[in-house]
Design brief:
The chain has helices at 15-27, 35-50, 55-67, 71-84, 88-104, 108-121, 126-138, 142-155, 160-172, 176-189, 194-206, 210-223, 228-240, 244-257, 262-274, 278-291, 297-308, 312-325, 332-347. With 348 residues, it is an all-alpha fold. It has a domain at 33-122: Serine Threonine Protein Phosphatase 5, Tetratricopeptide repeat, CATH 1.25.40.10. The radius of gyration is 22 Å and the shape is globular.
Length: 348
């Protein structure tokens, strides 16, 4: 387990090496983990080519790409599977899978849309009932979260995920002791479960038990070293506690496993911006923008970095791009005022 006391042992990577590594990780395709996956993917690709109306082929390809963390390809194939089938339950299953990807990408409004569509087609589909509970919890809509927690538990009372959602609901309602007791009981029944450990870590952090949260996240990385999200969550904790070198190490592991992990690129950019490494900060912001072109955070981040570096023209251009993407960008008026103040300062 990596200790904060041993921060100096974290990997020290030069500026040039970081830039090269990130570019390589971002540009290459994720390597398929074994020959079986490669064979299965080839099989379903050929099936889709010979029978373009095969829902199963497109859906299976979506699952394979999801497992490879190639989410845009997974989204494309799930949409194709929805397009070619007229069966409501098959459409619902694919819509639910789309929503799950958006949940993973923290695109909660998009996830909610897909889950609602899925439920319209298949009102008793447990996976969607459970996912609706989870997305409403993420959005802090506790009233709707309770509705779907109850519906999911009514269908499968012993479900780990449904009971985990119930515990999270209790925690968010302020019933922390009851929530912790419930989570501890679930952990006894399902020791080492990835999702459950993540919930325990997250609730500990939200309850300001930072050392407890850190231990959970570090244990998760030990148990699940090939899961990008595990490294990201640990890196995010280090980042929030301003242990930047440790955070860089975990975010780099995240990007190594999943080159398209938007939040990892964004957080790396923010760290390098805070460290004064403008070149790498801008490079990483551009990577994040390429991954998610409709997101305003990267261009806003570039505007702030250029502002920090007293580069008025570039700051203004990045800010204008931000407004084009999101006209209602929070804090836009204040940021624009600071950029204009920089212009006045430079002209004087």
């Amino acid at each position: 387990m990596l200790s904060l006391k041993n921060e100096e042992r974290a990997t020290k990577i030069t500026t040039v090496t970081i830039a090269v590594v990130v570019i390589i990780l971002f540009s290459v395709r994720v390597v398929i983990r074994n020959q079986d996956w490669r064979t299965e993917k080839t099989l379903w690709k050929k099936t889709a080519e010979t029978d373009p109306n095969s829902h199963r082929a497109w859906f299976k390809l979506g699952n394979i790409f999801r497992e490879e963390y190639r989410f845009e390809s997974a989204i494309y194939n799930y949409n194709k599977s929805i397009e070619v089938t007229k069966k409501p339950k098959l459409k619902a299953k694919a819509l639910n899978s789309l929503g799950a990807i958006f949940m993973r990408q923290k695109r909660f409004k998009d996830a909610l849309r897909e889950f609602k569509l899925a439920l319209e087609l298949h009102p008793k589909y447990f996976a969607t009932l459970n996912n609706l509970a989870a997305v409403y919890l993420e959005m802090s809509d506790l009233e709707n979260a309770k509705i779907y927690v109850d519906k999911a538990l009514e269908k499968l009372p012993d479900s780990l995920t449904a009971n985990t959602n119930r515990a999270v609901l209790l925690f968010k309602k302020g019933e922390k002791d009851a929530a912790k007791e419930m989570l501890d009981g679930l952990l006894e029944k399902f020791p080492g479960n990835y999702s459950l450990l993540n919930v325990l870590a997250k609730t500990a952090y939200e309850d300001r038990e930072y050392e407890v949260a850190k231990k959970y996240y570090e244990d998760i990385v030990l148990f699940y070293p090939d899961v990008p999200e595990a490294h990201f969550n640990l890196g995010d904790l280090y980042f929030k506690q301003e242990f930047f070198d440790l955070a860089i190490n975990e975010f780099m592991q995240t990007v190594r496993l999943d080159p398209g992990y938007y939040e990892a690129h964004l957080n790396l950019a923010n760290i390098y911006g805070q460290k004064g490494d403008i070149e790498n900060a801008i490079l990483l912001m551009k990577n994040a923008s390429a991954i998610r072109p409709k997101a305003s955070e990267p261009s806003l981040g570039m505007a702030l970095i250029y502002l920090q570096n007293n580069e008025y023209r570039k700051a203004k251009e990045a800010f204008e791009e931000t407004i084009m993407i999101n006209p209602n960008q929070p804090g836009a008026t204040e940021i624009n005022a600071k950029i204009d103040q920089l212009k006045e300062h430079l002209e004087n």
